[in-house]
Amino acid sequence: MEHFSMGEGWHLRPAGGATGEAYVAEQGQQKIFVKRNSSPFLAVLSAEGIVPKLLWTKRLENGDVITAQQWISGRELKIAEMDHSRVAELLAKIHQSQELLDMFKRMGNRPLIPGNIFRALQTHVRHKGLDHGSLKQALQQLESRFPNLTEQDFVVCHADVHHNNWIEDEKGNLFLIDWDGAQVADPALDLAPLLYAYVPEESWEMWLRAYGRKPDDSLWYRLWWYRLVQSIENILWYKERGDEAQAAGWNLKVEELLHKGSGAQS
What we know:
By secondary structure, the chain is an alpha+beta fold. It has 2 domains: 11-71; 79-260, Aminoglycoside phosphotransferase (APH), C-terminal lobe (Aminoglycoside 3'-phosphotransferase, Chain: A, domain 2, Alpha-Beta Complex). It has helices spanning 42-47, 85-95, 98-106, 114-127, 133-144, 188-198, 204-211, 217-240, 244-260; strands at 11-14, 22-27, 30-36, 54-59, 65-70, 75-76, 155-157, 166-168, 174-176, 183-185. It has a 5-stranded antiparallel sheet. Strands 6-8-9 form a 3-stranded antiparallel sheet, with helices on one face. The protein has a two-stranded antiparallel sheet with strand order 7-10. Helix 4 runs parallel beside helix 8, helix 5 crosses helix 9 (244-260) and helix 6 (188-198) crosses helix 8.
């Protein structure tokens, strides 16, 4: 890592990940997780037990901020474990954190408004020349009725609740890591991909009760709406990378969502 040294006896090695900004620092039997320019609200996440303990923060002369966290000898949750109530309970804790929300807003982050999400998606689809067939129909359905939200409905969303980001330590404590893409948004932004990808439809209501929410027609609709948006975004993402097989798979998911309709539970 340029412009930074852990000191004598410490060795840095890349920890992997998409950003290339994460490292493992080792000295003998000691090991810590080090990251450059991680989420600025890491301290709040650490204090609330959502991520591994923050050990220290250091600002470098070039403006970069280095953070060090406790290393946990843990494991990623398996796909089959994502429907457990403890996942629902930790996500609820995140969504209900007023301190996290207040800090995020103080940093100038504005809520993701459904209308803005739609317009950006529509522009992207049209730019790629894909505004036809099932995608055209999907855009029409999304535009016909935006989720009705008030300011009180917005929370801090992780925005990437893939099972690889859920880590269990050796003591059984659960953490949700990798907060670089977090947003102030409708909680359904997190709930939709998690439920559709990992929780059997017949268990949705029970899972949501563990999350602390009694589902109603509004929530069912919002889950459908965000899942349709995210499915289209995945089509675009895979097409840009030339992976037509994955794009076709997500196109099938779009067609399934259109067939089931916005009034369906899934």
